[in-house]
Design goal:
The complex is a heterodimer of chains A (115) and B (113). Chain A is built from no helices and eleven strands. Chain A is mostly beta strands and 115 residues long. The termini of chain A are far apart. Classes of the chains: A mainly beta (115), B mainly beta (113). At the A-B interface, strand 5, strand 9 and strand 10 of A face strand 3 and strand 4 of B.
Chain lengths: 115, 113
């Protein structure tokens, strides 16, 4: 299994500011994934983060709005830039099972509220 | 990835088996059926997955019909802690592609005392 720590667990931010969310994994993993869960909705994949290369973004998500860093095999950050109330969501980090089973482990998420 | 259809909500009595159905009539031959659940205020948790044979682990059983167009997740003895949203997802299983899960709306299972 993999244990994922996300920081902060929640935050309240002002419109126009940016927030960086950190994701730390207790094992080395090749790929890390960032999801968004808007209020009352299901999860949507934002991007895939590989160490040593640029993140791959899904349709509807752009690097300028959600820049991602992946400096090593156990850590990644997602920044939500120039926030608006529509960005109020839960942001979740996830990783593939490091021992090879084809399943994902998820962090507990960051609850973001934008005023 | 094939689309899935799940009932929006279900109730189950504590201690009884919870049977959660999922329809995936357009599933392809190389697509697996995955189940995850999300307990309130937590990230999703993997439960089980299978291709065509029935599968069982410490959490649940997965029954896939012979034509693979539907499946049922069985929680044999539901507890209050099993109250969650359950997601049925079908996808090709391969390393590096695991993360791109397409979550539907899922089934909200309410386990009642």
């Amino acid at each position: 299994s993999a244990v994922i720590s996300q920081k902060p667990s929640r935050d309240i931010c002002q419109r126009g500011t940016s927030l960086t969310i950190q994701c730390q994994v207790d094992s080395q993993v090749t790929m890390m994934f960032w999801y968004r869960q808007q209020p009352g909705q299901s999860l949507t994949l934002i991007a895939t983060a590989n160490q040593g290369s640029e993140a791959t973004y899904e349709s509807g998500f752009v690097i300028d709005k959600f820049p991602i860093s992946r400096p090593n095999l156990t850590f990644s950050t997602l920044t939500v830039s120039n926030m608006s109330p529509e960005d109020s969501s839960i942001y979740l980090c996830s990783v593939e099972d490091p021992v090879g089973a084809e399943k994902l482990f998820f962090g507990s998420g960051t609850q973001l509220s934008v005023l | 990835d094939a689309k899935t259809t799940q009932p929006p909500s279900m109730d189950c009595a504590e201690g009884r088996a919870a049977n959660l159905p999922c329809n995936h009539s357009t599933i392809s031959g190389n697509e697996y059926v995955y189940w995850y659940r999300q307990i309130h205020s937590q990230g999703p948790q993997y439960i089980i997955h299978g291709l065509k044979n029935n599968e069982t682990n410490e959490m649940a059983s997965l029954i896939i019909t012979e034509d693979r167009k539907s499946s049922t997740l069985i929680l044999p003895h539901a507890t209050l802690r099993d109250t969650a949203v359950y997601y049925c997802i079908v996808r090709v299983s391969s390393r590096g592609n695991t993360g791109k899960l397409i979550f539907g709306q899922g089934t909200t299972l309410q386990v009642k005392p």
